[in-house]
Amino acid sequence: MTNQPCQACTQTRDTGYAVQFAGAQNAVALQAWKNGDKFTPYRELNESTIWVPEHSFAGLIDYFQAHMDTDQLQAAPLTADETVIDSPWQSLDQIQRHHSAHWIDDVIADSRIKTVFQPIVSVQAGMATVQGFEFLSRAIEQDGSLIPPYKMFEAARLRDRLFALDRVCRISAVRNANLVGDKLVFVNFIPTAIYAPEHCLQTTFEEAQKSGVDPRNFVFEVVETDQVDNVNHLENILHYYRKHGFRYALDDVGQGYSTLEMVERLKPDFVKLDMHYVQGVTTDVTKQKAALDLLHTARAVGSRPLAEGVETLEDWRWLVEAGYELFQGYLFGKPEATARQVVDVSLT
């Protein structure tokens, strides 16, 4: 049996869920729902499993929770035209979290991404001088408001769309590179979202070439380094960037043998000291040691050290005196829609 399909279910993007019902109580409740509900579209996969579309799922969950033993329900993502369930079955709680993040699918499909710019500065004659910008991504709501990045990427993880979101953000950033003239362009990428660089990065490189920006001005910044299990794969990605004339950076590097060993092995062009070790470094000897250890390691492999998360003059002065060359943080400017070429901040 199949209920009457609605227009939304015929859309190519439509996704949904296979829901499996176990237990005699649920079997009776399911049959009563099938006999009584004349409005909700569904497809019967077998006598104990139905497919329901994404847009109807929340209402059905309310009904199921009111009338069924939800501990004996399980579900799995399934698109409208699929018949074989390849995804693992999940509890109703797990699948509800997956469903609650479905908005990210439309963000990705419509490329509703806005690039914002945060300045990266050096010190010249005691003044902060803009050397480049980190290009950061924000998702755009239907009403035009911006969605915080942590919410955006968490939704992508729940929906298993990290590859697609990372690609959309990276390409959007590269397309905006010519807005900052000859300044450095720091673009984030998640290495676990790049399966094969020769395929996954092709569009990125094409857009970089179209921008007319010198390839060496692009700095592709590895984020979530701690999530990388296969360092050989990461090395392959970074070698591919460098082979095509681009540079790369390691982000959020902190204290400890493993992170310093990573810097020594990967030899990035830039290395960013995690803000945890930046904020309060003036008075914290543990943070000072971490900052100096990274500085010495960076110099040994030819990397330029950058301190991120700088918020006070005192911390900035300490880092300058220690030998750090580049700086980023709210002291110099928050991420903004316009790339400000002048920052009025002085060491004195």
Automatic annotation (TrEMBL):
Gene3D superfamilies: EAL domain (3.20.20.450). Residues 97-348 form the EAL domain. Pfam families: EAL (PF00563). Signal peptide: none annotated. One of its GO terms (molecular function) is cyclic-guanylate-specific phosphodiesterase activity. This is EAL domain-containing protein (Putative c-di-GMP-specific phosphodiesterase class I). It comes from Tumebacillus permanentifrigoris.
